[in-house]
Amino acid sequence: MKAAESHVGAWLAIETIGTSEGEAILRMPTRREMGDGAQAVHGGFVALLADSAMARAMGTVPSAGGRRHGFDLKLNFIAAGRIGEDLRAVARVLHSGRRTGVAECRVEGEDGRLVATATASFIVNQPVSQRADVD
Questions:
Q1: Full-model pTM
Q2: 128 CB contacts (<8 Å, ≥6 apart)?
Q3: CATH label of the domain that carries residue 78
Q4: Is residue 2 part of a domain?
Q5: Distance between CA atoms of 113 and 117, rounded to whole angstroms?
Q6: Strand arrangement, sheet containing 100-108
Q7: Domain around 43
Q8: How many domains is the chain partitioned into structurally?
Q9: Residue 55: which of 28, 11, 14, 93 has the closest Cα?
Q10: pLDDT tens string 94-129
Q11: What are phi and psi of 103, to 5 degrees?
């Protein structure tokens, strides 16, 4: 498993469609078990896809030797994801600094309709040898 992949991502069959510096596109097939009572994809799965895409996009930009971890996620639902369709997340890095990063994402249905938008903030955890508080 690559560093950008996760066990839950593999379990949900989330696939990286493409990456370039500062961008990532992921796809997630949906199935009946992911639905809510209205036969729409539960928002938690949409959030997981968006978060995964933004983390993958952050992983495509050079960092100052640290590993990035998300600490804030904002998601706006626009339309329902439909059970049985593939959802596509397109993420882009807005800022990648020495200590923090910010990314945005669009989650779309198969027909291109906007399902959700998201933003996330990331902290860069510096290796112990680079921290100012270490003697």
A1: 0.87
A2: 134
A3: 3.10.129.10
A4: no
A5: 12
A6: 15-20, 23-29, 86-96, 100-108, 114-125, 67-77
A7: 7-130
A8: 1
A9: 93
A10: 999 888 999 999 999 999 999 999 999 999 887 666
A11: -135, 160
